[in-house]
Design a protein that fits this description.
The complex is a heterodimer of chains A (229) and B (214).
Chain A lengths: L4 H34 L5 H13 L2 H12 L4 H10 L7 H26 L2 H9 L4 H29 L3 H7 L9 H9 L5 H32 L3
Helix pairs in contact in A: 1-5, 1-7, 2-5, 3-8, 5-7, 5-8, 6-7, 7-10, 9-10
Chain B lengths: L3 E8 L4 E8 L3 E5 L6 H9 L6 E6 L2 E5 L4 E2 L7 E4 L11 H5 L1 H5 L8 H8 L14 H13 L5 E5 L7 H17 L4 E5 L2 H7 L2 E6 L2 E4 L1
Parallel strand pairs in B: 3-9, 3-10, 7-8, 8-9
Antiparallel strand pairs in B: 1-2, 1-4, 4-5, 5-6, 10-11
Classes of the chains: A mainly alpha (229), B alpha/beta (214).
Amino acid sequence: MDFTPEEWQAIWLTVKVAIVGVIGSLPFAVAIAWVLSYTRFPGKIVVEALVSLPLVLPPVVTGYALLILLGRHGVVGHFLDRELGIVLAFRWTGAAVAAAVMGFPFMVRGIRLSFDVIDRDLEGAAASLGAPGWLVFLTVTLPLAVPGLLSGAVLAFGRSLGEFGATITFVSSIPGETRTIASEIYALLQTPDVDSQILRLCAVSLVLSFASLIVSELLIRAGQRRLQR
Amino acid sequence: MTGFEFSARLDLGDFRLDAAFTGAERVTALFGPSGAGKSTILRLIAGLLRPDDGKVVLAGRTVFDSVARINLPPRKRRVGLVFQDGLLFPHLSVRQNLLYGPWVRRAPRPASFDRTVEILDIGRLLDRAPRHLSGGERQRVAIGRALLSDPAVLLMDEPVAAVDQERRAEILPYLANLTQEFPIPMIYVSHAMEEVERLAQKVVRIRDGRVEEM
């Protein structure tokens, strides 16, 4: 298929935004998942609900919240701009943040489920053998959670590919900067006689999303096999 | 000093433990029906559970004392723990499992490695993954892993309970050999009299969270 330069740009940008969003949010997801799986504290249910909120909130609301928080005049955005020279609004990095937020629930869920099923005695055994807590985490907990971590990350990646509402609200749809596949399709829908172009991009979207679901499923299975006891 | 001293009270709501015993023998058996609190006692000794109050002394070293506010973390208690179903690290090979203790403590490979592997007869399993071992083999590796972490006391939580009758007869001689070869005091939890009779010099009977008779 011969894509136009604009289409290539959108496809590449979509993948870049999703990859950066997933990798950037992975450490936070691991930390939150660990806290939810290993600790008990009052108000935990609120944190759990907060993490899952992007799943049920209208994406446009999430995008608007990001704009208020991270926009140039936002509470955090103003600080980032003034102190660190980082601007997220209307930049591809902002799109990555939106992708990260929208994919976050999937990632936390995947990792947390993995943590939940780890036999705590296995970690007790590691501690008894002389390992300090951080080493138990690195050598036992984390390796055993890798399948869930990967499948969560792949699902979050897939979710990011399809991100539209939060992205367009937070960073708009600027060709070459924030116009991902979804916003490119939306832009094309406002143009007459481009049906074949729209269909092509839809096909790309379908292939990418489908592939990430398959990969996620394969990772779960491979992990289950590897970690059987 | 090679003996140990244990006393603890623990209230878990549906289960209460209030037990005290000492041991200077090579193998002390904790004997009693399931649910009596034997495994709980091992967890308290290992530091995986914390008693409401009590005192645990291992080889002359106080690892827990509620009055003196001493509570060493599991990694500093020097206990070699063998669970009922082995609990080998599934993502590591047998060799890596065996050397996990020295590795995390940045200790050199123990001089007793070859001998331990020989006694337990696990030499040909070293490069295998735990999931490719039989139940009996898994238990032998778990015992080796505990021994190679240089423990001051070995805690065995029904190490052969999950293994069928035939294999059990296969593991017990290894255990008997071990107690001869390595002069490490052992606390052996079991509800099977034959094991206790064969291995232990001292029997502590546990029932409903209490010591019934020594």
